[in-house]
Amino acid sequence: NWKDVMATDPLPEPELAAARARRERTAPRPGHADLAGAMKFLTSDLRNIIERSSARDTAARVAAGMLCQSVLDVFRIEVRSHVTTIEGVRLERDVTFDEMAKSHDSDTGCVDEAAATRMREAIDDAKRKGDTLGAEFEVAARGVPVGVGGFAQWTDRLDGRLAQALMSIPSAKAVAVGSGFEAARTRGSAFHDVIEKGEGRIVRPSNHAGGIEGGISNGEEVRVRVIVKPIPTLMNRLPSVDLRTLEPAPAAIERSDSCVAAAAAVVGEARVRIVLAEALLQAFGADTRAQLLAHYEATLELRARTFGLR
Fold first, then answer.
1. Which of 16, 220, 239, 253 is least buried, going by the fewest C-beta atoms within 10 A?
2. What is the rounded CA–CA span in Å between residue 231 and residue 237?
3. Can you give the pTM of this predicted structure?
């Protein structure tokens, strides 16, 4: 913080003014929190808005997500992600949960090398032109038991809780559960996952619902897709207005990337872990791992008695 530095080692006034000027930003970036934050907090210096709304906040969420994995481990739940789209390059096939394990080996987060190569080319082209790219990624959780979430209160719905957590990722503009983006173009007879009896359990030949029905997990893989917008900081700056003079000015520049896809997917994994851990503790509440497992096993036993299914 430059104020702390100045308090301990004061600079001459000209140098102090120059240090302030370097940190101040007065031309808001279209698509960022800059202008709305300035209006909300009545300031023309955007620096505090920029710092507090920064995606650096997600680092703490990723750390919390890994701690929450200890709860998911009781149920042997795994969470993975992969990037499906960057600008016009789209992976036009379904990706299995096992395939998603390769996503962290790719700088694009895409598990298909041919698509990843085209994604890199798009990113490099945008970077050369001082532009940014939007993207889509998917997060999947395997092993989520039936009955997590609820519909008695709107705040209990697992899909709603996941959507809120994922939409809170900076740059996220849309969230869909399962094949949700396709629902508007599909008839119910083709969209809904038919119910069949498997080996001691109910199974589905498809998973358009993304593992959640009526706000409750149904035993299939929980799958959510997130669309992130192009980053608002463009090196080829967009038109804006200087809030001090109200004159036209190019938007401010901050350190930035060309595409957030791979990093955002990792953040998405963490957000899903946090929501699932909270929902699991509500469904099978306990104070210790041993109690949590015992309560879950007791629930399975009750289901077996009631339906002959676990």
1. 239
2. 12
3. 0.88
